[in-house]
Amino acid sequence: MLSVYFKxxxxxxxxxxxxxxxxxxxxxxxxxxxxxxxxVVEFLVPITAAPTQSYHRGKFVWHDLLTPxxxxxxxxxxxxxxxxxxxxGRYTVILNKxxxxxxxxxxxxxxxxxxxxxxxxxxxxxxxxxxxxxxxxQGGKVLKGPIDMPQRGRGALMSDPLxxxxxxxxxxxxxxxxxxxxxxxxxxxxxxxxxPQTSFIFYQNLGHYDSMFGxxxxxILQNEGKWRAGIRHVPEDDFKVRxxxxxRVADPALLLxxxxxxxxxxxxxxxxxxKDPDGDIAVISDNNGAFLILQRLPDNFxxxxx
Length: 306
Prior knowledge:
Layout: H1 24-27, H2 37-41, E1 60-67, H3 70-81, E2 84-88, E3 91-96, E4 99-106, E5 118-124, H4 128-137, E6 141-149, E7 153-159, E8 165-170, E9 186-193, H5 196-207, E10 211-213, E11 218-223, E12 226-233, E13 242-249, H6 256-261, E14 265-268, E15 281-285, E16 291-296
Parallel strand pairs: 1-4, 5-8, 9-12, 13-16
Antiparallel strand pairs: 1-5, 2-3, 3-4, 6-7, 7-8, 9-13, 10-11, 11-12, 14-15, 15-16
């Protein structure tokens, strides 16, 4: 059932200050434009431990946290999920139970703005250049790239027609296999959009999603018989459209105390919606402002559906 059946009574959208996303991930440094841009790019690790040579167009295959404070972000996620870290130059690799699942990069805001953290998701595509041209043709923007990143692959930082940011990637060794996610790893990605039909049409063609189903306020993007992502309808006109990822947890309610003690914020508690009677989902932001969904895996989950 994933987060498709979750509808909170209030996400408090308007009081969240807009994210300031740097293009540091592809330019490769904490301060974009510095002479050390290439140094971080060289330390980006492959998205699979061993080459799979298998690709799944439209699948989200990696996540990087852009954060103004690496040390405090490491403390938060180590305390909440037990994640560990490897330092590769100025790039921080995230490990869940010894498996690499993502990374962290430090970003800085302009002098007159506060930097907030943001999880940036990578979408697999067979041809980054063609996909980038499609994004621009549909009214989106190519913020950086396409460029070749040693070990990571060819990538480009995108903004969709409504402003949601994500990365396109074609990894040299292939994409991760469709397997049942373990506790502490990525479970799902959903787009919070105030124009869901516009969003669906854009992503349907980009990811070659062959079906859409769900409730009136939620749509599922599917291909290869697998659920790849969701689109949640947020009716507020002035809402900032964004991608939000979810992490599989054993019980979200048991983590809420840790979230607050580590400096995070709880936006939606489990069971605050009649559509989540089992309390499977909570919505939080971390100690630097990055949104995240904590989700218990339903008993009827079938491996590969997500």
